[in-house]
Amino acid sequence: MVLARKVLQAEAAAIHALVDRLDGSFEQAVKLLMLCRGRVIVTGIGKSGIICQKIAATFSSTGTPAHFLHPAEAVHGDLGVIQGDDVVVAISHSGETEVVRIVDTIKRLGARLIAITGDCNSTLAQSADVVIQNRVSDEACPLNLVPTASTIAALAIGDALAMTLLVAKGFKQEDFANLHPGGQLGKRLMRVEQLMHAGNQTPTVRADTVMQRVVDEITSKGLGMSCVVDDSNHLMGIITDGDLRRHMANGTNVLSRRASEVMTRRPVTVAPNTLATEALHVLEQRKITSIVVVDAANVVQGVVHLHDLWRTQMI
User: Fold this and answer.
1) Considering its fold, how many domains does the chain have in total?
2) Is 63 in contact with 169 (CB distance < 8 Å)?
3) HSE-CB for 6 with a 13 A CA cutoff
4) CA-based Rg of the chain, rounded to a whole angstrom?
5) I want to staple 95 with a disulfide (CB 3.0 to 4.6 A). Which of 43, 56, 119, 179 is the partner?
6) Model confidence pLDDT, tens digit, residues 233-262
7) Is 180 domain-assigned?
8) How far apart are CA 228 and CA 68, in angstroms?
9) Residues 232, 237, 243, 244, Cα dihedral to 10°
């Protein structure tokens, strides 16, 4: 336990030291990445290579096309992946690993080079357009040999670059959702327009529809409710199974009425781009099972039922 705490403290200290060390070089790196017309190629070997793969994945998932290039494979043909309009991010703590073997080709092709290294006097640093210093006093390894604090610090720098770019590019939640359609993230970012019953599946009646016809519509569509709309499909109100029961409990001859006499006016609605999680929150707070989806003009687009959210395994 004592050693484990020391490891965590050493790695945390390495990241914390980066905060005050960030300078104009970081800003220059962000500018290069912002102006990149090609892709970001992230390269490194060994433990740094594994960190590079994660950084490349983070760039790609946040709107900056990126690719990992193994430097040893690069000198055996994979250098063809680098184009003149790319930006290469090379990570090497010593600045003297196999990464330096591809520097000449990077420069010859005209690609720009960002180095993340612990030695600003290394071969890699001297060849780079921008150098972000990643010096650590000691690794978290008791032998001071295994890359630990240096790799976690490099990862943090990569995350800082990716997040800064995300904001600078105006990358929004909707963009993130488009790139993460699967898994738990995809479910969290799903929009109601992807789940709603639309078109002929949407239960709708006119204000002057007789209630027998309304009951038929509610029954046939199976959502326990119907929207009441005007001739232009603008939402006027809704009628639910609960409304029918309440009127019947009061002794009202419901079937002799028309929809406009029974409907609940100004029902709760959501926009098509509302997150499914937000819609679920509304359903739970209001203790209702369905919610109408309308556009900015209050035109009915569809209906989302609680069961639709259950099927996503979101709840």
Assistant:
1) 2
2) yes
3) 10
4) 29
5) 119
6) 999 999 998 888 888 887 778 888 899 998
7) no
8) 55
9) -20
Give which of 169, 150, 217, 207 is closest to 63, Cα–Cα. 169
Adjacency order of strands within the sheet including 235-240: 204-206, 225-229, 235-240, 264-265
293 within domain boundaries: yes
Range of the domain at 127: 2-171
Residue type, 71: P
Specify if 144 maps to a domain: yes
Out of 119, 142, 171, pick the residue that ends a domain.
Answer: 171
Do residues 270 and 144 both lie within one domain?
Answer: no
CATH code where residue 250 lies: 3.10.580.10
How does pLDDT run across 65-105, given as a tens digit for each residue? 999 999 999 988 898 999 999 999 999 999 999 999 999 99
Q: What is the CATH number of the domain that holds 16?
A: 3.40.50.10490
Determine, yes or no, domain membership for 181: no
CB 121 within 8 A of CB 128: no
> For residues 269 and 236, is the Cβ–Cβ distance under 8 A?
no
Residue type, 133: Q
Q: How close are the terminal C-alpha atoms of the chain, in Å?
A: 38
